[in-house]
Amino acid sequence: MAENELASIHATLIGFTKRAEKASEESLVATFVDSAPLFALLATANNQVIYGRRGTGKTHALKVLAEHVEQKLNAIPVFIDMRTIGSNGSIYSDSSRPLAERASTLLADALSGILTEFYSIALSVIDGHPHPDEVTRRLDALQSSISTVKISGEVEEQTEETEKNQTEKGGGATVRLAAAPAVNANLATKARSDLGKTRSLKRSGQEKIHLSFGNIGGALSDMVAILGGRRVWFLVDEWSEVPIDLQPYLADLFRRVVLPLNDLTVKIAAIEHRTNFAILKDRGEYIGLELGADVSADLNLDDFLVFDNSQEKATDFLSNLIFRHYQSSPDISVSFSDPNRLISAIFTQRPVFEEFVRAVEGVPRDALNLIAKVVTKAYGRPIAMSDVRAGARDWYNQDKAAVIRNDPPLPIFCNT
Predict the structure, then answer these.
(1) Selection from 12, 55, 9 nearest residue 240 by Cα
(2) Rounded to 10 degrees, what is the CA torsion of 118, 123, 124, 127?
(3) Which residues have C-beta within 8 Å of that of residue 169, sequence separation ≥ 6?
(4) β-strand partners of 266
(5) Rounded distance, CA 200 to CA 160, Å?
(6) CA–CA distance, 252 with 255 (Å, rounded to integer)
(7) Which residue, 4, 50, 60, is CA-closest to 297?
């Protein structure tokens, strides 16, 4: 291949979009690579947790699932990004605030985010709905159920008594005057006493959010029922961005309000070692979600992408990933009919590409970043083994090493 053609290919590889939230819906669908049976597991109507390290494609998979749900299943996707929930996320991590206040604020913000999505859904269906007034009424009921505020604090009771005395003169005794027998004089005295009481109740304290899961669940069920039998899919992304001590309370909201609804599916994308779904209590009681019972946790993207788990799956996945991103780029001057032809054109030999796959360690986002690093070192010529190793070393030092240095040391256990 001519040097100018290879340089043009390299320029396209450098310009890949690295993050799913930055890409258009069309681009996400075009660049999605399924490693069977990954999408078959993901597309079931079962409530599910999707595990995967940062950059393994959880957001990408949920976005593609949302497109599939809407276009293929005629269902309604509700995408919830936990990073954007609430007006001030720092409240959740503020340890100076009581846990109950932080948890209730988080739940109220999450419900407000859900309500915002249902406003959009209502706008999209109300024009063609046979009962538009009922859609509006149920939407208002949902808003009312999550907007209850109560004042907690001291209660002061005041009672005031007032007494009124009134005297009236008018008769009651008759006097006959001797000088004038025909004349009588009447003198009447009447006394009346009125007693009145007034009572006042004064409540002073702090306004606090009061959430009734029963009322919210009922209002949400009514809202889903008015959508003409269409299933609603809650796709919850970036779960692990919620402070870990608050996660069980958010999970409990989903367990009590969302999971009981038959026409609603929940998918939660999370990082396994940064996730806490439940607080276990005595006698089997718990707050949150019980994995395996309330939701399944049968999908881990690392099982499909890590080189050591399956060399063939990992190499096929990444060759398809690079190929699809290349083919969907707006400016390409050289086209390829399949992934193997593209890989053969940009790498000197197959083992060099396998070394690239091993260096990526099953993280697609790292693959897109590393290919840019490697291409920069080999610009205008096929990528050699030395380019892969030098690029991987630079990527590790710039992106990974600083994070590892800032991690607290692991405890050392000694056998005595």
Answers:
(1) 55
(2) 140
(3) 187, 188, 189, 190
(4) 234
(5) 8
(6) 5
(7) 50
Q: Give, in order, the Cα–Cα distances in Å from 191 to each of 162, 169, 170, 195, 196.
A: 17, 8, 11, 14, 17
Residue in 314, 254, 328, 275 with CA at minimum distance from that of residue 54: 275
Output the pLDDT for position 160.
Answer: 57
Q: Which residues pair with 49 in a beta bridge?
A: 268
pTM over 0.90? The answer is no
Distance of alpha carbon 268 from alpha carbon 45, whole angstroms: 13
| pLDDT at position 187 | 44
At 259, phi and psi to the nearest 5? -60, -35
What does the alpha-carbon distance between residue 297 and residue 47 come to, in Å, rounded to a whole number? 9
**Residues listed for the chain:** 416
Query: What is the third-level CATH fold of 20-148+210-303?
Result: Rossmann fold (3.40.50)
* Residue ranges of the chain whose pLDDT lies below 70: 20-21, 87-90, 148-210, 400-416
Residue matched to tokens 């100018």: 4
Q: Which two tokens stand for residue 391?
A: 């690029």
Strands 278-280 and 232-237: unpaired
How far is it, in rounded angstroms, from Cα 342 to Cα 355?
16
Main-chain dihedrals φ then ψ at residue 84, nearest 5 degrees = -105, 5
CA distances from 33 to 30, 36, 194, 218 (A): 9, 9, 88, 39
Strand 48-51 versus strand 296-300 pairing type: parallel
Question: Residue 332 contacts by C-beta under 8 Å, 6 or more apart in sequence?
Answer: 8, 9, 12, 326
Task: Name the residue ranges covered by the structural domains of the chain.
Answer: 3-14+329-400, 20-148+210-303, 151-207
- In whole angstroms, give the CA distance from residue 107 to residue 85: 10
Return d(Cα 334, Cα 353) in angstroms, integer: 20
CB 89: neighbour CB atoms within 10 A?
Answer: 17
pLDDT tens for each residue of 309-358: 788 888 999 999 999 999 988 878 889 999 999 999 999 999 999 999 99
| Residue type present at position 329 | S
Is the distance from CB of 198 to CB of 12 less than 8 angstroms? Answer: no
